[in-house]
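User: I'm putting together notes for a lab meeting next week and I want to include a structural view of one of the chains we've been expressing. I don't have a solved structure, so I'd like a prediction I can at least talk through. The sequence is below, exactly as it appears in our construct file.
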Amino acid sequence: DPVRTKYIGEAMESTRNKDGLFVFSNEAKNLLENELKLSNILVIPKTIDAWEESNWEYGESSGIFLGDVAKFINPYLTPDAEDIISLLKKNFDCDISFVSQYNPSDKIPDFLKGCKIYPFSNEISKIISKHRVYLNANRYCTFEMLTIEAMSCGVPLCYIDMPQSLNSYVG
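Assistant: Thanks for the context. Below is the predicted structure for the 171-residue chain, given as structure tokens.
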């Protein structure tokens, strides 16, 4: 989103050489300002808006969600992607799904035939919440918003140990 990108760039430039804190919501900013008396807090809006609904039901959920297809097929981020899909197809009789958050630079490989690839949507939480589990198989990513989105939806999460990133947030 070019508007969001411009906003973040301008916001970061405005805080250069200052102590400050980035948060993802006005609620977090208000809490930190009011309760902890912190200042110089900048709200960076999330890339994905979650539903306002808080009681998630999973009786009808099924399938495995694997996040962004472009990251999954990138051999530098997920070097064993083909093996992962092969194991999932062999051992689970369910849908295997991705979202196309970015336009993959490579064409979708043959080993993903039969997998669902949803186009990016601001209602990604509705897509994620349809699944029984979210498997983040990326070995070398920094911070994965789709993983946090899945957690906010209450979808069970499996992820590869990433001490530099996710471990700090998902335990």
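A couple of points you could mention at the meeting. The two ends are 30 Å apart (CA to CA). Confidence is low (pLDDT under 50) at residues 48-56.

User: Perfect, that's what I needed.
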